[in-house]
Design goal:
By secondary structure, this protein is mainly alpha-helical. It has 7 helices and 2 strands, in the order H-H-E-E-H-H-H-H-H. The longest helix has 15 residues.
């Protein structure tokens, strides 16, 4: 029987400086403080203006490769980042399917 992936099997988290460098460009079209995005990603705050964690995850998933995402998203937030509210509005469909597959491998 297949064993679910363990959180400790994930790559190490990025440094705060590296996180800031990755978070800054994803909201190129909105004037938002990278520190605030980092707090939102960690779960320290629920929203920044019109940006909530779901929309942050969506932009991250559409921007970065899988291994960057694993190093960027805190392990305790990964299940939320791959949740239905995030994935149901992810386009193109084949990208959504890849993340559904990853979620099934990690959490089923």
């Amino acid at each position: 029987m297949k064993q679910p992936a363990e959180i400790h099997d994930l790559p190490p988290m990025m440094t705060e400086k590296d996180q800031m460098e990755k978070l800054s460009p994803i909201y190129w079209d909105v004037d938002v403080d990278p520190d605030a995005l980092q707090r939102l990603l960690r779960g320290d705050t629920e929203r920044i203006g019109h940006i909530d964690r779901i929309s942050l995850y969506r932009r991250l998933l559409m921007t970065y490769d899988w291994y960057t995402l694993l190093a960027l998203i805190p392990p305790d937030k990964l299940r939320e980042a791959l949740s239905d509210p995030v994935l149901e509005h992810l386009h193109p469909v084949n990208l959504r399917d890849r993340f559904l597959y990853a979620r099934n491998i990690l959490f089923s």
